Amino acid sequence: MKKNWLITLIVVFLIFSIATPPVLGATKGSTMAEVQKKITSLTKQVKDLKNKLGLKIKETDKLKKEKSALQNQIKTKDLSNKNKDIQIVNLNKAIKEKDINLLDLTESINDKNIEISDLSESIVEKDETIEELHKKIKQLEQLSSVNFIYTDEKGNLLSSNSKNAIKWYEFRTDQITIYLTAKAFNEFGYIIDISDEVVTDICQYFNGNQLPQNMAVFISFNDTVSKATSGEYFAGEKRAFIRGESFYPHNRYTQESLVDVYVHELTHAFQDALAPNLFNANVSSGGLYWLTEGMASYVEHQFIPYENYAIPEGHLTSEHKYNKEEYRAKILRSIKENNIDMDSFTKLPERMKMYKSYEIYESLIYFIENKYNHNTLLTYTKSLETQDPINSFMPTFKTTEEQFINDWKEYYSLK
Ligand SMILES: [Zn+2]
Q1: How close is the Cα of 335 to the center of ligand 1, in Å?
Q2: How far, in Å, is the centroid of ligand 1 from the Cα of 68?
Q3: What's the gap in Å between 320 CA and the centre of ligand 1?
Q4: 301 CA to middle of ligand 1, Å?
Q5: CA of 204 to the centre of ligand 1 (A)
Q6: CA 404 – ligand 1 centroid, Å
Q7: pLDDT in 10s for each residue of the chain, 415 residues
C-alpha cells in the first residue's frame, strides 16, 4: 500500500525524536496537520462532486418526463391521417434523441459515482494514517517510561550505551521477560499482551509442568543482532533470541510467523524444564533433535489455539493444523530436500542429526500423538533425564526402533 512508506518515514522521524524530545511535538504537529488538511480538501471535493451528481440526476428526471410526454402525444394521434404520420415520425426521432441524452447522462453519473467512491476510499486511508500515527505516538510515549538494557550484537550485556550497542526495552509478564528493540516494539508489541496466554497454553501440553524460572526472550527487527540467525533457544542462558525480519509477514518465503517462533522457542524452554539433559550435549541424550525440534514444531503447528489470541491481522500464516495427508506431502518433500534414502531410513534420526527442515521430525511426533498417546511421549522425554534414548525406547513404546519406523512409514503410506 502506498501509505506504508509514509508511515515508515514518519515513524523513523518519531523514533529520532525520542532522543530529542522537543522535536517530537514539532514533527507530530506538522504531520498531523498535513494529513488533516488533505482530508478537508478531499471532503470538499466529494461534496462538490455530490452537488454535480445531484444536478445530473435532476436533468435526467427532466428528460424522462419530456420523453413520456412525447410518447403520450403519439398515443393520442389519429393513425389514418397522413400528415399525422409525419408528425409521429418526428416525435419518434425526438424520443430517440432524448434516449441518447439519457444514456450520456447515465454514463456521466456513473463516472461521478466512481470518483466519489475513490475519494471516499482515500479519505478512509487518510483517517487510518491518523489513527496509526496516534498509535505510534502512544507507543513511543510508553517506551519512554519503561526500563531498558544494552547488549552488544552477540547478546552480551553492556553496562552502558556505547557505539553499536543495542537498546532493549524490558517488559515483564508473569513468566517471561520480553526484551524488544524500538523497531521490534513497533512491529510486534502485541506479543507482550498475549505472552501469558501463550505460556499457559504451552504449559498444558507439558501436563502443567511449569517453567522453573523467569525466562528472557529477546525480539529484534532489522537490528544488528547476530546472536541468532533467525530464532534460537539458549538452554544454558535460559534466553531465546528471535529476529523478527526472518519471519512472516516480513519474510514472505517462510511459513512461520513471529508468534509461531515465539511458541516454538518457549516450547524448548518447557522441554528444558522437563528434562534439562535434552539440551546438554555432554550427556548421552544430548541433542535429540527429532524429539526436541519435532515436539516444538508440533506444539507450534498443532496444539496452540492462535484464534484465541489478539494477533493483528496479517501477522499469522495459515500454516497450522495439518492433517495426515499434508504431513505425508511434507515428508516426501523433506526426503527429497535432505537427500534421504527411504530404504535405509530404518531407525530414528540420529541424535545430533539436524535436517534442513523439521517436517520429518514433526511427523514422528504427530504419529506418536495419534498412534500412542500424549503421555507416552512425555514419559519418554522425561525418561531421557536418567536413561539414554535406546534403553528407554523399548520400555516406553513397547516396540523396537525399527518396528516403530516401519509403523510410521505405514501410517503415512510411505512404503
Ligand atoms: Zn527449535
Answers
A1: 19
A2: 78
A3: 17
A4: 13
A5: 19
A6: 23
A7: 444 554 454 444 444 444 433 333 334 445 777 777 888 888 888 888 888 888 888 888 888 888 888 888 877 766 566 777 787 788 888 888 888 888 988 898 899 889 899 998 999 998 888 888 888 788 778 888 899 999 999 999 999 888 889 999 999 999 999 999 999 999 999 999 999 999 999 999 999 999 998 999 999 999 999 999 999 999 999 999 999 999 999 998 888 999 999 999 999 999 999 998 888 766 656 678 899 999 999 999 999 999 999 999 999 998 899 999 999 999 999 999 999 999 999 998 887 778 888 999 999 999 999 999 999 999 999 998 888 888 889 999 999 999 999 999 999 999 8
Domains, in order of start, for the chain: 3-143 (1.10.287), 182-411 (1.10.390)
Q: How far is the CA of 297 from the centre of ligand 1 (A)?
A: 7
Residue 310 and residue 294: Cα distance in Å, rounded? Answer: 26
CA of 231 to the centre of ligand 1 (A): 8
Residue 293 CA to ligand 1 centre (angstroms):
5
* Ligand 1 centroid to residue 16 C-alpha, Å: 35
- Please, which residues have CB less than 5 A from ligand 1, an ion? 293, 296
